[in-house]
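Ligand: coenzyme A. Inputs:
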Amino acid sequence: MLRASQQDFENAMNQATLTMEDPGSKVKLKLYTLYKLCKPEIWHCLKKGPCTMHKPGVFDFDNKAKQDARKETAMDLKSSLSSSETSSQGKGGADKKAQESKDILVTSEDGITTITFNRPSKKNAISFQMYKDIMLALKNASTDNSVITVFTGVGDYYSSGNDLRNFINDAGEIQDKVTMCAVLLREFVNTFIDFPKPLVAVVNGPAVGIAVTLLGLFDAVYASDRATFHTPFIHLGQNPEACSSYTFPKMMGSAKAAEMLLFGKKLTAREAWAQGLVTEVFPESTFETEVWTRLKTYAKLSPNGMRVFKELIRNHERQKLYTVNAEECAVGQERLKSEEWKDALRNFLSRKAKL
Ligand code: COA
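Predicted complex:
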């Protein structure tokens, strides 16, 4: 997993120095920009950890615009450096490849395909485009050489769930995308139901909404002790999705599932583990090392065996999961027309309420 830091700039410089050929003006320009961006208030956007940066006030349009532009540039640079690093590594190894997408990074290495939410400036909120990119990434991963497929996030969040701005047009008005949303969501969730290989979530930080509900369709969920699990549908005029109305009560019992899905209780990583949503919790300080070491070991197990066992487990429930998904999407379609939802969206946009 690539985490951007001062070290990345130095690595990029070393790579460029070692290259026999001139890297070209585009690469040189990126290096120069990276150098210029190499200061704390930009690096915090790329690194893990809470934001300590001064935020311009709501009406400080000038500085907010400049800050947004700097964040975007930093994110773009990080994405392009990540993908160019992966592609260049891929030249030497047959099982390495990268999918070009700004907000979803896909890498394949050591028998593991990793799909990474890469939109840390928005807490990895999932835009419509990202839903499509993820479906494509899963489709590719189902037939590539990898043994295990892993989801994780860049930055301090795993993912803040559905991008609430998916429903807003450029003029800031709520858009009627009800049917399109229901169709996209149904197809998206079915892709997870049908995924044939072991699917693992490496939950590096807080997870919200669909980033949580989807976990019921994963085979293993490893969480940092910094992670939290929140499904605030009741505050949003929304309903549980990704088959969680079926998988959560089955996993944790109806009383505990109700606390999460009906009352919007936020769980710590350890609570989520106690309720069966999380496989294992690791201290933040050793999380990455321990989890990736373990996953590399698992990726050496028999790919065919794991496929067959997964199919055996999933086969009993596949039809049930399709039905639940269809029902949740139908209910969601109605909820998206409700005033409750529209009010919640307006609140979020005006930032009167934080969940
Ligand atoms: N949809 C759209 N934008 C989101 C988002 C989401 N789900 N989650 C975060 N963002 C954006 C914020 O609007 C903000 O954008 P800005 O910098 O342009 O103002 C940016 O990400 C950073 O988030 P911010 O709210 O400043 O960070 P925070 O640490 O104070 O709070 C959250 C983080 C996730 C608690 C808060 O953003 C939130 O409640 N998001 C909504 C989560 C949600 O309801 N998801 C859907 C569930 S169904």
